[in-house]
Structures are given as C-alpha cells and as structure tokens.
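Final report, Chapter 2: Outcomes

The project's central promise was a pipeline that accepts a single protein chain and returns its three-dimensional structure in a standardized token representation, suitable for archiving and comparison. That pipeline is now operational. To close this chapter, we reproduce one record exactly as it appears in the project archive, with the input sequence first and the structure output second.
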Amino acid sequence: TPLAPRIAPLNDRKSWVDLRTLLNAKDPDIGKTGDWLGLDRFYGQSWLLAHMVQLHPELQSGRDAFLENISIGMDPEEAIELSFSMSFKQFESLYTNYWKGGRLPFVELAAQPYSEPIITIRTLSDDQSKAIHWRAQLDFAETRDRYAELILDIHDLLLKGDNPELRLVLAEALLSFERPDRAGKQINKVLAIKPNLTEAKFLNERINIDIATRRLEGLGEKSIANYDFKAIKDNLQKLIKKDPKNAHILYMIGLAYFLDPASDKDQSIPYLSQALALLPQNNEIRLMLAKALEKEKNLVAICHHLKHIQTYAKHEKIKAAAIKELGILASQSYNCM
C-alpha cells in the first residue's frame, strides 16, 4: 500500500529519534535531508504518535484535552502530563511499545450501509430574512454609537409590525449592549408568541445569568442568595439534551453552577471544559474555566489558561481580567512563568 513505504523506517528501531526531540521539531527542520528529520523518518514516527493518541485505550479520556492543549501552543510535555495524568516517561513507554512486529494495532469497524444523502431545502420567511439582515448589520457595526443607532432602528421597525425573529435579534443586541433588563422584556414578548422557540428559551436563561453575574459583582453573594439557579440549570439541561454539542449552552450551564451559592464550583468544570474543547478560541470560556479550577488548586492549568488569554485575547476586558487573576496568584507567592 502507499502507506507501507512511508512507515517502513519504523522497523529500524536503532534509528528512532527520542520522543522529546520529535515533539519539539519545528517546521523548518522537517524538510532537512540526510538526518532523521528527513520526511521519511518524521512521517513514520509522527504518524505512529498520532495513531496512538487516537486509538490507545489508556489515552481516550484525555485525548480531546491533549489535542486542544497542543493546538493552543502548550509545551508538549506539559500537555501530556496535564491531559493524560501520567508522567512523560510513562507516555514515552506507551509510545515505544506501540509499534510491535512491524505493524500497528488496528480496530475493525463494521461498514455502515450506504444510503443516499438527504438534501433539505428550506425557504426563509420574510420575518426570518429581515432578522438575518439586521443581525448582519449589528455584527458589522464599527462603533458603539452605530450599534446603538441600529438598536433604535430595529425598535422603531417593530413598532410598525411585530416580528418574533427580529425581536429575538433586538433582545440579543440589548444584552450585548449591557441592558439585560430591556432584553428580558423583549424575550418575554417573543416567548408569549412562540413559547417553544429554542433560541428564545436559551437567550432567556443567558439574560438571567447575566443579571445574576452583575448582581454578584456589584452587590456581593447575598444579592443572589434567593436566585432560582435550579430552574435555570433545569431549563438549560433540557436544551442541551436536544443539542449536546452546543458549546454556548454548555458554557451557560457551567456558569450557572459556578454562580450558584448552593453548588460546588467544581461542578462547573466538566461543562466549561467541554465548551472550551468545542470553542478553543473563546477566551471568555477559558477565563471562567481558570476561575473554576481554583477550587481544585490546579495551578498549572490555571496559569496556562490565564497566560494564553494574556497573550492572545483581543478583547481588552477579558485580557484585563486574566491579568488581574495572575496578579492574585502572584500575591499568593505563585508565579506563573
């Protein structure tokens, strides 16, 4: 097969490069010839490593976290220890023993019967088309003043005739504009007309969580003592059952557990971790996960997430919050290098 000659160098164990060197190879090195970094050797060993991470039973639980950590630039050895809960030496032992008798382990899967793809064509209603038009206008608003103008334009348009789809856009815009009270009024109007609209149900819980967050930040924990977090979590759990890979819903569930005084903050970690795995570039989720990990005192992971935000976040508010958390750690005599 075309694969065979490309992994043939694996049969010469004496020429294997150590795993640490392989993991830290940089792109410019890969093209060198006359050394192990020639493409034949690099391909064979890197292919073996990818195969092992994908299929080895001992690595399945940490695989997604490992791939996410590598993708954001974490040091490979640190990513291995953090994701798989094993030492680098243990991981290296798995790797060197994975290639046996000139072959890779394999998994047999039953072929699924072929069926013709189902193509669904859906025509948007006039209400939906208008909502998409105005959502695009908001997305491309270059200034806060322009965003405010668009909110007023949508409000005026709704006075001339109701459109639940457009009212949903208005509610989301008001929430982004830091007016959750007004956003809530708009969502109530949408739900009065379309009580089963999933997007409206989700936004309603987003608004509830936003209000709770503002109360907590401004007035302290007593201000949310009687907040009905159970209802929020129950409603979000119903939504995630219908859409289990929705990172935004997972994030809101994690946030609800984090804010709820009656819940342990570490209950939020699985939801926040899943959300970040689905949206690894979302630094708002990353910041909340770093805060949740404080309960477990997982300082390595906390530092990694905060330093990532400090380096890559474009949103100044998120970056400032990460720098503040790093300062708190430093004041506790833990320096994130």
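Archive annotation: The chain has a mean pLDDT of 85.
This record, like all others produced under the grant, will remain available to the consortium after the project formally closes.
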